[in-house]
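Late entry, evening session. Most of the bench is empty. Finally got around to the prediction I had been postponing all week. Sequence below, unchanged from the version circulated by S.P.
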Amino acid sequence: MPHAINPQSDRNQQLFERAARVIPGGVNSPVRAFKAVGGTPRFVARAQGAYFWDANGQRYIDYIGSWGPMILGHGHPAVVEAVQKAILEGFSFGAPTEREVELAEAILERVPSMDMVRLVSSGTEAGMSAIRLARGATGRSKIIKFEGCYHGHADALLVKAGSGLATFGNPTSSGVPPEVVQHTLVLEYNNLQQLEEAFVLHGKELACLIIEPIAGNMNFVRASVPFMRRCRELCTQYGALFIFDEVMTGFRVALGSAQAVYARDIPGFEPDITVMGKVIGGGMPLAAFGGKRAVMEHLAPIGTVYQAGTLSGNPVATACGLATLKEIGKPGFYEALSQKTQTLVQGLQGAADAAGVPFCGDSEGGMFGFFLFPELPQNYAKVMTTDNKRFNTLFHGMLDRGVYFAPALYEAGFMSAAHTDADIAETVAAAADVFKLL
C-alpha cells in the first residue's frame, strides 16, 4: 500500500527546502531534482544491499544503484574491507601507486581492444579526453555523435540534431558558444542512411565517431548490429577513430562490456578507443579511457595531447574498483545477474499485459529499460513521444510502494547481485497494482 507521510514531518521535504537555499535547484546533478516527474526528491540516509533508506526512514528497493556503479549492491563486504584498508594507508598522494597499475591491468585483461588505459575521475572527463585524443591522433577536427546519446557535459558534446542531415549541432545548454560545437555533427541513432551520407560528405574531416552502444540516457535503446557494423566499417574506411562510450555499459552488461556483446555477431569487432566509468570505480569517483598503444601514446607526457588530473588514479577509488572487478569476475556472476534482470523485465511485461497497458522492455546483463509502448523504440525521436503523465503516475505509484526507479523516463535501470527473487516479486506485485491506475 502507498506510504503516507505527514508533510509537516517530511524530512525529505525539509532537506530539499534547505538544500534549495544553498545549492542550485537543491541538487548537485539535475535529474535528482524530480523535475521531470514532480514531487520531492528522496534524500538517502543509508544503503545496504539492494535497498536504501530515505531521511524519513522509508526503505526502497533501489533500481538505479548510483546510476550503475553498484553492480554488487550497496556495502558489499569485500569492497568495504578493501576501501577501509586503503583509507588507513592514505587518501590521496598526487604520485603514482602500485594499485593504479593493478587496476589498469585488470581493465585491460577484461577488455582486449585496449592496450593502454588512462585513469581519470569522471565519465565526463574520460569522454572529453577521448575526443581530444582522437583529434590529436588524427589531426582532424570534426566529430559525429548521435541524438539521445550522452557523453558527459563537455561543451562540444552538449548539442542536439539540426533541422536536416549534416547540419552541425546547436548548443542545448546556455553558456556553450555556437563556435564550440561547429565541428560536432549530430545524427539520428540507428539511421543507416544518415550515417552513410554523413561520411560521404565529411568523412575525410572526421576525427572520430562516438556512440553509446546501448544508450542509457534515452532509457534503454540498443544500436542495431547492422548499424554498429557499418559504424566500424566507415570509420576504418575514412580513417576516423571509433569511440565506444561504455561509461554505463562497461562491465555492466557483460564481463567484456558491450563491445563483447557486439563481437558475438560481428567477428573481430573492436572500437579504437573505449571510455569507461561507474562499475570500474565501484561507486567511487573513477573513470578511464583507453585504446591501442599507437593511439594512446599521443598522450602527454610521451605525446603532445595534454590531459591531467590531481585525483586521477586515487588510491581509495582504485581499491574500491579492484575489489569490485574481482567479485564480478567470479564464475557464473553475469549469468545470475542477467537472469535476475530478465525475470524483472518479464514480470513487468506480464503485469502490464494483464492490465491492458502498452509496455515493452529490454535488458542486457544487469542493465534494463522499459517503455509505455507496444514495441521498442530505435531512436530518440520515438522515445520523446512517450506519455509523460502516464510515466509519472507509474513512477510515483512505484515510489509510494517502496520501489525506486529512475525519476525520468529517459533513464535506464540497473539490477545488482544483491537483489533477491523476493525483491523482484515485490516489485512486480507493486507494478501490477500501479498498472491498474493507468
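Two things to note before I forget:
The chain has a mean pLDDT of 94.
The radius of gyration is 22 Å.
Will write this up properly tomorrow.
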